[in-house]
Design brief:
By secondary structure, the chain is α+β, with helices and mostly antiparallel strands. 30% of the residues lie in helices and 33% in strands. It is built from 8 helices and 12 strands. Keywords: Acyltransferase, Transferase.
């Protein structure tokens, strides 16, 4: 049976999701931040003999399913397709692949998913003076950096998102600068009581191959890990993956995004 989840289900939901907290980072974070029912967020659960076996989150136009075993894929797909807002279905690769017969997609992308849980391989930083924690006043400089990097797509919407993240303490950005300009940065987003997601790791072209991104990322990870959280990230570039692995990130699976067909 599939039904909407409410606050009364919270203990069972969190116990269910906490078995794989990194993979459920977004669901856990959105529940902690926004609860079970708003105009932009809802959650559904599938129950079998009073036991929760699957969860589906809608956050705005994005849907994330999670299950540990067999579940009613068709039933979840019907909920997703019934939503006018639906644009992206994402999650653990082996879960998203099961939706292929039910949801037509114009694009499917799979990325490596990695997690770090201890500080032992992080770079040892002698001084933090050159590494800054961004405030709202630094957002424009950081997006000027991103706009000049081919792999990044910076927009006013993502600017607003970074401002909101800083103001609500749901993420942080560490960066370095030279002559008043940001030259490398690394951010977290969707921070919650368990893991945090690393995003926006980048370095200006003229400053690459100097270890700046590793230093910035190490400082960020070190502080978050000291708080008793873990960190995770996505990557699809093997070169970037080797850097993350050197710092102590371990691959825990693949994450797939399925974009709605127009």
């Amino acid at each position: 049976m599939i039904r909407k989840l409410t606050d009364k289900d919270h203990e069972q939901v969190m116990d269910f999701l906490s078995v794989e907290p990194a993979l459920n980072l977004f669901i856990i974070g959105d529940i902690e931040n926004f609860g079970y029912e708003t105009d932009f967020q809802q959650l559904w659960g599938e129950w079998q003999n009073d036991r929760l076996i699957a969860v589906l989150l809608r956050y705005k136009e994005n849907f994330i399913p999670y299950a540990k075993g067999d579940f009613d894929v068709k039933g979840f797909a019907e909920i997703v397709l019934a939503a006018e807002q639906f644009q992206i279905l994402s999650g653990k690769e082996e879960i998203i692949d099961q939706f292929d017969p039910y949801i037509p997609s114009k694009q499917k992308r799979s990325m490596y998913f990695a997690e770090i849980t201890n500080r032992s391989n992080l770079e040892k930083i002698q001084t933090r003076e050159e590494i800054h924690v961004a405030t709202v006043d630094d957002v424009e400089a950081i997006f000027t950096l991103r706009e000049n990097i081919e792999e990044f797509t910076a927009s006013s919407a993502s600017r607003d998102s970074m401002v909101h993240t800083i103001q609500t303490n749901s993420g942080r950005t560490y960066f370095m600068k030279d002559q008043g300009k940001a030259i490398t940065s690394a951010s977290t987003t969707a921070e919650n009581s368990k893991p945090a997601m690393i995003v926006g790791v980048c370095t200006a072209t003229n400053y690459r191959n100097k270890g700046l991104a590793s230093k910035c990322l190490s400082a960020l990870c070190d502080d978050v890990l000291k708080e008793g959280k873990s960190l995770c990230l996505f990557y699809d570039n093997p070169a970037a993956g080797s850097i993350y692995q050197r710092l102590g990130f371990n691959e825990v699976g693949r994450w797939t995004l399925l974009h709605k067909a127009e």
